[in-house]
Structures are given as C-alpha cells and as structure tokens.
Structures
1.
Amino acid sequence: MSAKTLDVLVLGGGLAGLTAALHLRQLLPDARIAVLERRLGPAPEAIHKVGESTVEIGAHYFGHTLGLEGHLREHHLRKFGFRFFSSDRHDSIDDVQEVGASRYLSVPSYQIDRGIFENHLSERASSAGIGVVSGAVVEAIQLGSDGALHAVSVRRGDAVEQLTARWVIDASGRAGLLKRKLGLAESTDHPTNAVWFRVPLKIDVDDWSEDSQWLERCEHRQRWRSTNHLIGDGYWVWLIPLSSGYHSVGIVADASTHPLDRMNNFGRAMDWLRVHQPRLARALVEADAKPADFAFLRHFSYGCREVFSRDRWAITGEAGVFLDPFYSPGSDFIAIANTYITDLVRRDLTGDPIGPYVTLYSQLFRSFYESTLTLYRGQYGVFAHPGALSIKVIWDYTYYWGVLCQLFFQERLTDLRMLGRVRDDLLSSRALNDAAQSFLRRLAADTPPHNPRVLLDQAALPWFVDLNRSLTIQLDDTGFRERIRASRELLESLAIEIADRAIKADPSIALWPETVAMLERASGLRSADGQLLAYPLAS
C-alpha cells in the first residue's frame, strides 16, 4: 500500500469489494483506493462461495458497466436462463412440469466461477492502480464523524499498520464488520437454510431422459447450462454448471419443513436427496461423485438498517443484506448498492454535499430490497403447487424485467428527477406485486395441485420475449416514462388474466379477499383479453 491516507478503503476483496473499487476507478481516475482482502493469495477455481448464477442486472453490471463482457464470454458459461422442474419424489425428469424457455432470449446472463472471476477482478484492479492487499486482517475500525477521517488497524503477518481514509466501504461478506460494530443487523422473517457442495462432473439433466420428444423441446440440448431448479414442498435444489468443470449443487429449504440437521453434511444431504430428488441422487451415485467441498448456512436471509451514511461509510454485498438465492439476486444487489455508493463517493470527492443524496438513495435501496423480499417471504409453500409455481415464475419475471431492470439498464437509479416523475407507477406496481404474492400463497394452499407432463415455454410468449428484448433499447426521458407506465399496465393485465383463469376453474376464487385485493390493485374488475398467457396456469 503506497499511501497510509486514502480516499477510499474497501474492506473485503471479493466480488462486492473489487467491483466497487473498479467502478470507483472509472468515475475517479486519480482517487487513492485500496482493497483489503483477508485471504492470502489468489482464490482457487470453484471457490466455495454462493453466487455463481447471475441474472440480468448483475450480468449487465459486470459486462457493460464494468466492461467485463469479453472475460465473461471467454471464461464463463452463458446461462440458458432459469429452469424449474416440479420433480419432488419423481425418478423421471421428463414426467413432470417444466417451466423455462426453449431457446436463448436477447439479454445474456452467466454462470460464473467465482474463483476465476474474482482473480480477474483483482488483476484488473491492480492494473488500474488500486492497491489490492491480501492477507490483511482488519483488527479495529474507528469511524470518524463531522469530517474526521476513519482509522483502520490492519494486521499482515506479525505487522500491524494504521490506515486512515475519507471513505470506508464494507464489503467483508457475512463477517459484516460495520454492521456488527454499529448494531445494524435486521431480521427478514424468512427462516430458511441452505446447504451446498460442488462435484467435479457435468450434471446434464438431458442425460436423464431417452424421450426424443422431450429432448427436442429445447434447442441444442442446452438444459445443462440453465440454473436448474428441482422443486418441491418448501424447498428447491439448484444445479449450476461452472466453466472449471465442476457442478454446484445446493439445497435451499424452509426451516420448519426441512430441518437443517437432516442435510447438514454430505451423507445426510444425499439421504435427503434420495427421498426428495431421487433422480439427482442416482446421478451422483452412478458417477461416484465425491464433493470437493460442503457448507451450510442456517437462517441465511438477513437485512441491515443502514447501508449508506452521511459520515462517509457504506456497506455493499453480503456485508449488508442477503435475501435468498432463488432468482439469484445477490449480484443484482451488489450492482445496485455499488451504483449508489460510487455516486456518493464521486459527489463527496468532487465537493458536492451528499446528505440529501444519502437519505434518498437509502430510501430507494430499501424500497428495492423490501419489494424483492416479498418474492420470498412466506412463498416456499407455493413450490408444492406446480400451477401456482408457474404463475409465480412468469409474474416475478415480469415484475423484475418490467420495473427494476428498466431502472438499472436505463441508468436511472440516481436520476432523482425522473424517479419522481414515475413514482406513482412504481408505487402502483409494487402494491400490485404485494397483492399478487398473497394471491399466489392462497392459490397454492386452497386449490388442488396438478403436475402435467408439459414444458411451459416462456419463449412461446411474444410479449415476454419482447419485454426481455426491451432491456437492450436505450430510451430518452419520454420513452422511459412510457416504458414504466407500460410495465405497470402489463402487470395489471397479467393480474387480471391470472385471476380470470383461476375463477373459471373455480368460481369461489372470486370471493377470496386476496383475489379482490389483486383485482382492485389492477384498476378494476375488467375482463382479461386472454392474449398474454399461451398456456394454462391454474390447471
């Protein structure tokens, strides 16, 4: 480290910290930036971290904002979207409902080997003049106030160094250095556990079937590149391929339905898979798969009361909030937090007062966090009902691509003037999403499940394909306002059609308070046109 007094000191040299440092370097070419990483030396390939699967915001942040698209394409795997199999206790993957796209859509996302990626980020940061210090253990943090610098005590081997910095960014992961120091931890009321391991083989679900018709549903036998979800009551299992030749396998489960002590080592996890996902268990046994690692997390979901401060500290990544690995939102929230943090640092180092921006950015980040949490909290019961699950997937995608992705791809997260203009549409969309999630819980709990042998092909929905493609089209102010309004109207139409189809299957559904609330949020009891959904969702 060439300077003991820095403009920005980043605590943690993983994904969140290194991307924050690189983003800052783009905005502030002359800033004195250092990153402290506890691990000594480069990360191993197939490093034991969650977060391999990116979705559109995270992928766009890495590829476009940070300019890493070439590295992603060359050294990682393009993801064939999400894929969901209602395969609990089924030995045949081709005999259950499958939800996914039969072909690639326009906007890429990636399966990322975190070791390869973080080593590349570290090299890029060092080449950009950022001091990346490995083997650095943070022993003490003294936060300054009223303009005073922050002081950080760092141990490297037997030596202790005192550093000062105008800004401290905590990217220390679950260590949560600042969150622990300041008592900022917050519960999400989402008691869910996870176990995961990696095996040195390719798990190709297409190999689990000899049915040519089933195999030909998807182009070029690319299912193995998907984040494959094997779904059951209160749980899901992930299958994520890595470019290093490993496959990541994880079990994520509601703590009350599937206690952690039934799966908290590899032997128990295999016993659990033999019951709930026997086809996967058989594939691992036939390959004589030996885990390269194994880990578990109890009650992994958590929040943080404050992530940006007027006193020039900030928190990003898992050091602050973590929702759920379902839909892979981790890198998205790194992208969103880093966007706000780097803008605050830029403003401060160029002489602008940051107080009002801290307040507004904190409110916005909190809003995105809370609206995304509604996709998970209390929703694991929906997984037991294939019809409700298929509705949830199409709804959640529409909400994500139509609202949050539009804000990020159109670079509007910090455009406070424009956010004010679309505020009513954003609030209406959020309220409708809350109502729709309640409806889905009731639908799963109170209607009989069916598990048809069918692919519900998202690529067969023209409006859905167009919504994905819309992320690639840059808009002026007028076009952006129209896009957000159109997204709200699309959600309203989709909600009405979902309710209409459910009521046709069971007229008593019209009397549910959840149905009434959803339809009221969707601007009244008007008839759906039946043009959005090309396949039955409630049967």
Note: Residues 401 and 467 are 7 Å apart (CA to CA).
2.
Amino acid sequence: MKNKKIQSIIITGILICACVMPLVAAGGQQGGSAGSQQSTMVNGREMINNTFVTGLPIVNQPLTLNIAINLHYQDELINNFEKKPFVPIAEKATGIKINPIVHTDSTAIPAILASGDLPDAFMNLINDNLLVNNTNLFEPLDDKMEKWFPNTLKTYETYAKDYGWRRFLTLPDGHIYSMMCRFLISKPHMCDSYTFINTDWLKAVNKQIPTTVVELHDVLKTFKTQNVGPKVDPAKKLPLNFSLLPPNADIKYLSGPWGIQGNYNLNNGKISATMNTANYREYLEFVHQFFKEDLVNKEGFSQNREQFTAQLVSMNTGVFSGWGPGNFISNQADLVPWDTLPVLKVPGKENLRVVHGASQTRTNMDRAGFVISRTSKNKEAAMRWYDYLNTDQDMAMLVTHGTPGIAYRKLGENNYLQLRPTNEQMAAMGIRQLGSFYQSVGLINCHPIVLAYPTLDLENAKYSENYWRELALPKIWEFMPKESVPRALAKQDKIDERTLIEVDLLPFINAFRADALLNGVTDAKWNAYVNDLQNKYQYNKWLQWYQDFVDGKF
C-alpha cells in the first residue's frame, strides 16, 4: 500500500510537470499519449515517438505490437494469425506487425494484469469488472480520440450517437479507456436463442410443426414412441436435447411461452419479478412432464459443449435450442431437415410476451474491444493501428469477414451481402469446416464496429449458421420487447452491492430450476423456495437495484 501511495505521488508530480512545461520541439503541440510528446517533422509529416500523426505508413520504423487477443474457440486459424486476409494488408499499409497473444477466454487475464507484465493492448479480453477495477493499468483515451482516433470518432458520432456511445464507453470515473467492437446492430444477435425441430422426424411420424406447448409435448411423445427414421438409433434417440454449454442451449428458453423473459421482465420501463410467479411454476410443472416421461436428455444439466455438439452431429436429436443448426453441424445433408419453431403459445396465455433474452432495440456493441496498456511504449502506434482498422466500413468488413467476393459482396454504401465460400476457397485459406469459416477469416467478436451485420443471401448461403435466424426474426418480431436495460456502467460500490446478492441468488435460482424440472414441484417445496428467494437471497432487493438502474438513479 505504501509503495502504491509513493507511486501515485510520483505520477502526480510527473503529470503536473508535464502540464506546465512548454513543448519546444519542432511542430510542437501537446499530443494525446501518456508517453513523451516530443514532435518532429519527417519528410513533411509530423511524428511523435516513431508514429506519424496522419497518413500511411503509420510508423517511421517498422515495429511489432504485442496484443493479447480473444479469438473464437472455433477459429481454425488460431495458430496462423498471419493467414487472416486483413493481416498482411494492414501490415503493409501501416508498417506495424502484430504479435498475437492468443486466448479463447478471459480467465487468464486477471493473473496477467496482476503480474504487471502487460502486452501493448488487449482485444476483447477485458470484461467490465476488470476494466473498472484496473483503470490504473489502462491508457485513458477520451482526450485522445480527436487526434489519434479520427476515423473511429467519425463512425461513432455519425452512426452510434443515438445509441449513447459516449455514455456506454465512459466509466464511473468519467474517462474512456476502450474502443468498441462487434456490430452496432446485428439482427442475428437480437434474440439469444431459437428452438429448432427436425422436420424429417415430423414427416416420419406424420406430425406438423407444433404451435403450442401442448402440441410440442405431443410431438415429443410421438418422437419417443414411434420410428423417426432408419438413420436414428432408437437407443440413443433424444426427443428433446439441451445443455448449459453453450448458454443459449439451456432449457430455460422454453419458459418464454409463459411470459418469462429471464430472471426478471422489463416492460414500459418497469422491472417485474418472474422467478416467484404462478406462470413460472406452471412452466416448471409443465416441462417436468418431459423429464418424467423420458422425453428429454436428463444429462443436459451436466454435459459439456463437446458432448452436446456430438449428439447434434449424430442426428439423434429431435428438438433443441441454440444459435442454429449450422453452428454445430457441418454435413450439408444433415442441415436440410431443421426448421425453426414459431413462437409457442400456452393455451389461455396467448397475449404474453414470449421471447427470452430478446429486444428490438438491442445493440451488439461490446465495450472493451480495444484497450491499451499504460506501460506500452508504443501507445500512439497502437491507437493509430486500431483506427486504421476503422478507416471505413469496407475496411471494418475486411477485418471481420475476410476477402470481398468470398465471404461477402458489397451492395452499396455500408451495405453488404454475406456469401457462402466454396470448399476450394476455404481449403486455400486452410479452413476445413464451413461452420467455422466466419469465426476464422477475421477478428470475430474483436473487430471494430460494423454498422450492421451483413444481409444473408438465403439462396447462396443456404444452411449457414445464421440462415435460420434470418428466416425466424420476422416471425418473432412482434413478440420481442421494445426496450432493454441500459448498458452503461454503474459505480463500483453499486456493482459490488448487486454482485454481493447475485453470488448466492443466481446459483439458488438455477439449482431450484434444475431440481424442479428433474423431480417436480410440490406446494411445500415451492413455498419454501419463494420464502428463501425473498428473505434469504434478497430477490426483491436485486429487482429494485435494476429498477433504480433503469431509472438512472446511479
């Protein structure tokens, strides 16, 4: 603690000196980096710390940036970063080579931050808690955007102003430490999870796609008792399958027909309880029948992503929830039978909002797409490199979707059509599976803001991972909430207050859900659960926290 105080005093002194000392170098103007601001002119271009303020190349002498980056777990180029189409183009244009320190999740990042041995920057690896609690390790960017992020700032101000980009990026201390990534608006991401059904199985048992939960129950029973096709092993047949990994394959998404949006609902600016309502109990009791009658994979609560994927690939599943069949299955013929279930109704409850985790106003922006370490000796170069990736939407699409003409085609200004690559095109890039192509060609989930997810060519990109989502969204649009909880960050004491409740509350809710679905609900069990939910696990206090947050009280 004493060392930190001394360090703080030293840093404060340096900053004070920096503020009062005049800049005497040629072209001298206070720049945006925390490092030396000495400006020189090279061939008529202003340069600070080997980095030109404008133009290309970005650096006078080539350099390498060490960037810790979160690459997708399905990325087939995870060990061949240089094969991503944008990489050689960016390196040639900027003079900057990227040394990627690859991660597929953020679990190792706290230890890296604690070590003090930081890379130049992080891409999509710093979550909100890490961002807020480690601002001393990250370079403030709010006063540097005009000078070092002109392309990025223009994009934000032109297209993201109505989405409150500045409030979204500003931390409780009043500063911005990160640039956004992903898509401003992405229709595929507006709904967390859809439910899919094997139409070959339906044809085999002479059934139609169900439209109510009662019809779904009947279909599942028929799947269990009748022959659904010669390719299906009766001993391995799973009428309904689910998994907690990936999260959008959870069976909780079947609670939507009972008006359950999540652990709470938001309607007209008001947070309301869901986990202790009569509708929630009805959902538990109804779906418990699926377990009781052996219509569902009872191992769903414990199986991992690989096991779930293997079951879908084997085509022994009749119904499942998730992103889409193309996200799991690669064989083209096995993708043909799948169709999206419509919004299911509960008889007598047809007017309830029934889509879980969806919103017509949902934006897909991620807060900490690009974060620069204060210890970096190449801050200016890092800022300009990221801004280069944000030059325009054509460049942003190259970074996320790869080479034009293979993964997408430009239709007009800021408008693109997603294409389906040929096997030959994938092979030339060293990518084997169509299901992992888009996760491999670019910085999926890490790329600078793309204004809108490319429109899907339903004819030529048939059965791609987003094919079903493109078709399903219009069917569910009217059932999707027209609002969502603000994505601004609360002050740390308020985050701590909520987290302290959630650490016990959320596991309790999940455990009761699993037990109730597996073993059923009695009056005594339900009453004890509702009592504990409020008195022991502070459910109402947690709901009030969200209401105050929505109301802008903190």
Note: Residues 2-187+366-396 form a domain with the D-Maltodextrin-Binding Protein; domain 2 fold (CATH 3.40.190.10).
3.
Amino acid sequence: MARMTQRSRPKNGRKTAGKLLSYLGKHRLVFFLVVLLVIASALANIAGAYMIKPVINHCVETGDRKVLMQGILLTALIYAVGALSTLGYTQIMVKLAQRIVFELRRDLFHALQTLPLKFYDTNRHGDLMSLFTNDVDTVSEAFNTSFAASIQYFIQIIGTLLILIVLSPGLSVVVMIGYAGMFGWIFYSGKRSKYYFDAQQTNLGALDGCIEETINGQKVVRVFNHEEKNMTEFREKNRMLQDAGTAAQRYASTQVPMVMAISYLNYAAVAVIGGVMAVHGKMDVGGLASYLVFVRQAAMPINRFTAQTNVILNALAGAERIFKVMETPAETDNGTYSLKQTEQGTWQWVNDANPDEAPCILKGDVKFTDVTFGYVPGHPVLRNVSLYAKPGQKIAFVGSTGAGKTTITNLINRFYDTDSGSITYDGINIRDIRKDSLRRSLGMVLQDTHLFTGTIGENIRFGKPDASDEEVVKAAKIANADSFIRRLPEGYDTVITGDGENLSQGQRQLLAIARAAVMDPPVLILDEATSSIDTRTEALIERGMDALMEGRTVFVIAHRLSTVRNANAILVLEHGSIIERGDHEDLLRQKGEYYQLYSGMFELS
C-alpha cells in the first residue's frame, strides 16, 4: 500500500466509483454548481475556437473593421467566461474535495475502531497507516485536480468531434482515423503497462516490508552483525522493483509522445487535403482555419484526459483498499447485560432486554467450562479448559511460552470468542454482556506497555477519564510510581512522547499498573505486569499490589514464580491444557511440572 507514481488498477472500478460518488452525493448542490461551471468552461473553449470561422469569413468577405472588432470582443468575452468558470470550479472543488476527504478519513477511522483484534493480527500496521496517508492522499489529489478536469476534457473531446463533423464531414473521416490510432495506442500501452504496474506494486510492498523490519529491528541487526546480509536482501528487492518500474514506465511513458505524433500527422494530412478543398471552393477559408485549430487542439484534451484518467484510476485503487477495510465486518456485540452503578456506589448487571429481571450484583465470579479456542481454525490453543475464580481470589497461570496463558485473559476480555464451551461472569455468559460494560469491569496490565502522547497524569487517567487528581496520585502510589514521577521536572505534568521514550521500561510498566489501579476494577488481569521491573522494584510493587488486589478477583500471568506464590490457585498449562492445579505448597508436594519450574527458578535466584 505504499506510495508510488502509478498503482495497480482497481479490481472493481464501477463499484468503488459508486461508493466514492456517494460521498459527492452528500453535497449535491455544490457538486451541481461545479458541473455547471465545468460545462461552461468546456463549451467556452470550443465556442472560442469556433469563432475563428465567422471572424475570418466576415473579414475576407466584407473587410468591415467594426464587424471584425465585434467578433474579436465576442471571442474575448467567451474566453473570459471560460476562464472565470475554470477559476470558479477549481476553487469550489478544492473545498469540496477537502470536505470529502475529511469524511472519508472519519469513516475509515471509525471503522478501524470497531474491527475485531483478529483483523489487526492479520494486517501490518504500516499497511493500515498507508490507508490514511497514501491512499487518502491519492483520493484527495483526484478530487482536487482530476475529477472536474476529466469531465471538462471529456466534454471538449466530444464537442470537438461534433464541431469537426459540422465544419466538414469529409475531412472528419481523416480525423477519425487519427483518433482511432490515438485511442488504439492508449488502450494497447495501458493494457501492457498494467501487468508491470501490478508487479511494481507487489515488489514495492516487499521492499517496504524489508525496510520496516530492518528499521524496527536495528538493535538486533547490530548485535548480530547482520548489516551486510540485510543490505544484500535490500539490493535484490530494490532491483526487482526497478525492473518492474522500468518495464511499466516503458509503455506508460509512450502514451503522450505517440498521441502527439499521431496528432501532428493528422494535422498535416488535414491541412493538405483541406487546402486543396479550399482552392477548389469546397470549403471556405474561415472554416478551414477554424477546422485546423480544432484538429491542432484535439490532442491536448485527449492527452490530459488520459493523464487525469490515470490519476482517477489510481485514486479508485486507493479507495478500493479503503472501502475494503470499511466493509470488513465489525466486532459483533449481541450482549444485553450492561453495567450500571447504583446510588450507593455499587455496581450491578442489568438486562436491558428484560427490565423485569432482577439486577445481579457485580462480584467478580469468573468460570470457564470446557473452553476450546484457536486463533486459526483447526489449530486449538486451548483444549477443554475448565477453571473458576471466586470473588476475591488470586488465580495464577504459569507454563512455557505458547501454553495458552495470555489466550485465557484474551477470552475473558472477549477480544476473541470461544470456539466451544462457555465463560460466565457472575453467572452470566459473557457473550450476553455488552463488551463495553464487560471491559469496564476489568482492569488489565499488558506485557507490552503502550503510553500515549500527553502528560503522565493523562496517561494514568486513561483508565478512568473522569478521575480526580487525588485519585490519579493514589493510583500512582499503589503502583509505587509516585516517587519517580515527582522526581521528574514537571511531575505529573511531564509530557510523554514517542510511547514513553524518555522513560525506562520499568517506569512505563509502573504507569501501566497505575492506569489499571485508577479504574478500581472488581477483576484485575496482570499479564507479565512486572516482567520489565527489577527484583527490588518488584518487591515494592507487590506490597502496593496487595492493596490493589484486596477483595478483587485477580488473574496473574508470570514467568517469575516468586510473584505467584501467594495465589489462591496456581494453574500450570502445557499445550493448551491444564496439567496441574493447586496452591504453591500443594504443587511443590506433587513434585510435577511446577516443582521443576520452581526449583529451576530457585536455583537461578
């Protein structure tokens, strides 16, 4: 999806054009005015050239200067109307184009907000960003400069042909042969270049992917001295892009010269034949002069129309990619239970579909029953997992990488839905709970910390937008982040940029924990929450976390087994199944997988 001079053509141009025009349809009156001005501009251009015939004929026949001046003034007026019309529609179209692009970006961003996480798992972030930059910019360029101009040039082409036929049907046969040659070459070269432009797009995507991976992995590249191998790979992909681009441009670049060459031959033939006809009285001098001007001008709208058509086709290809994302099915949410707060400040589940049903108090009782799930059909990550967490219990998941620990927490959040089995929350199937209410009741600290551009206070408040300053500070103290925040130059008003590049990894993790703490959620999910924190800081955090976890249901994923020793239940997963369960002492007595993991950890500590 990266930017390029020319792109592959849209697969379904008619459908995409219809959707794009629907955005114009929201501004019918403005667009109608643009069309009127475009038609006026095109007709003025044709009428101005036609005026050569009566002006010259009157001059030759009568020699009347007054008539000549009237003809010249009328011609000037016609061209002035055309110039003003052109100025008018270009200015209006610029504003209209920016409005349409605004709406397109808005709808695209809204669509991305509603898509399931699976979509982001299967699409590169760079490709999605390209939709907002390259593809939207291409659509903007088409609306700004090409859309109205294409209509004008098309009218000029048709109008010129009609005028030529009116002026001299006989000479028009010669012109038509030239026109056929022009359009024949345009069609042939366009068809040949399309194949290479498709290859160019594919190779450009591969090159962009290579560049993106190399830039993102610079530390790894340097550590393993991989620079030369990366350079060799880059050269090869860059060469393939060069070859495809050269072949594509070889045909595309011949369109304008060939059209001009055929136009010159056409003009010469018409001049000779028309001159003979004028000598023999079969055509007047004014008509011949006007005819030659039209023939000479004929190549210009054809060339420009072809160029603008390429821009429009590129825009349609970009719009097709945008609409493809916008048409991707949104994340489904058929839940009927929502989270409501009572006057006493407690939270409860309310069935919006059945107001007569008694509300259920939010407790944080989570239960898995025979849950099977796989990110890819036929390849389950979890197999018949059953577990429960009573309100206030701390449940820990341990196991090797890929055992399914994080998947369990993803299912609790309904980032994904189970393939079979059920998950209940306070006795309610989570499929029946509205996703926004479900996620509002869950506090989550992810292994991969992400901070947003803004102050530290705003990042903590991300967990609860209406949190007071006192609540923000309290959450930071619970996460043991208050001390380092106050040492920063601006304290809680310190601005974070670049995903917290001015903070250490441990500090970013502390802020993520504070962000979850400010939510004051009944259920807390910690996915390697202390993975990037040193053991000394971890010990301090655990004391604060104990206060945070008081009375809450907590799910903990950890590689450091020291962080799960005080869990009410520890579940050991392997290949998507629970192979051991119990508390710390029980599992040590069993001398199974957990015992081996813990013993190895103990020896390393």
Note: The domain at 451-520 is CATH 3.40.50.300 (Rossmann fold).
